[in-house]
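Changelog excerpt

This revision adds worked examples to the README so contributors can see how folded entries look when concatenated. The first example is reproduced verbatim below.
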Amino acid sequence: MKTNHDRQSQRTQRLLGDALVELMMERGYDAITVKDIIERANVGRSTFYAHYPSKDELFIRQLDRVINVLTEDAAGEASSENPYFPSLGLFQHVQQQYKLFKILSWGSGADLMIKHFQKSLSEKIERRLQESGEQLDIPAPVVATFMAGSFLSILRWWLDNKMTYSPEEIDKMYLQLIVPGIEKAMTRPSRRDDVSLSKYTR
């Protein structure tokens, strides 16, 4: 059962996260200071540091929140179109938040975002591979890192080229590129994967 303190803490974290996102939309990550964030959120400096040691840590926690929400919301898509992670759901979300992700993809916040996003996404893919029971010739962490890194490279290209293709089109291209390598890494591909992925390798 959540206490008043827990609810207040969650409210403060939400205010700080919303303030960061608003400021990034206005100025970009580089130009924002902790002072800017606490003024926008209307909280004290000590309150900020009671929750986060730095602006970067607040940024990382917001990325975690987005990744977790996306993974939960796109669970059905992850189990059918792409058994390993919700790539289509991620592309669709980025399209909806194009301006924000475009800002994130450049500037000093970009390297932090890419590094953390890849680490988090790789961990989620690795867990799904392990839970699937697939027998792999290549260690699951290597496969997961390859899938996540390839996804982020294509995602950034897509952003840089003003999303010329729809989320569905760019996701299909991603799967066409990634699936043959993943299937070769499997010693005994399951029938489920043959059915759900074969259409992307034709």
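The second example, added in the same revision:
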Amino acid sequence: MNTDTPIARDNQGVGNAGLFFVCYSLAMRGWNVLPTSRNAKGIDVIVYDRNGTKFVSIQVKTLSKRSAVPLGERPTCHMAQVVVVCRLSAGKGNPELYFMKPSEIDACRHQGDPTKSKAEKSAFWLQAKDYENFPDRWDLLDH
């Protein structure tokens, strides 16, 4: 990856960059990769092994910098077997990948500030210090 390449600044561009980097990384590790419809909630990628005997559903959450991961008012992470946080880093080489099980997200997710608007009160998020405990856990795809 050319480290001089600018990082997309709009949400759709950032999301697409992360999704396709994750797909590329999975394909390079021998998985057959099927991205789903881009505006669908929940599962972003379905992968299966070369023998067609193992299937894994993945949700990708992409960030353009070190920040919290918004999970929404009703986190959809439970639809996928694995959640990958892809953090793009302008000028710092390849994006960083963090792999979590939905149960791990449940254990460390936070809910909104009660002093904020209704939407902000009920929204969930995952702090950077929490997902950073799960770098490059490719082994989650094997279980």
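Reviewer comment on example two: The chain has a mean pLDDT of 85. The first helix runs from residue 11 to 28.
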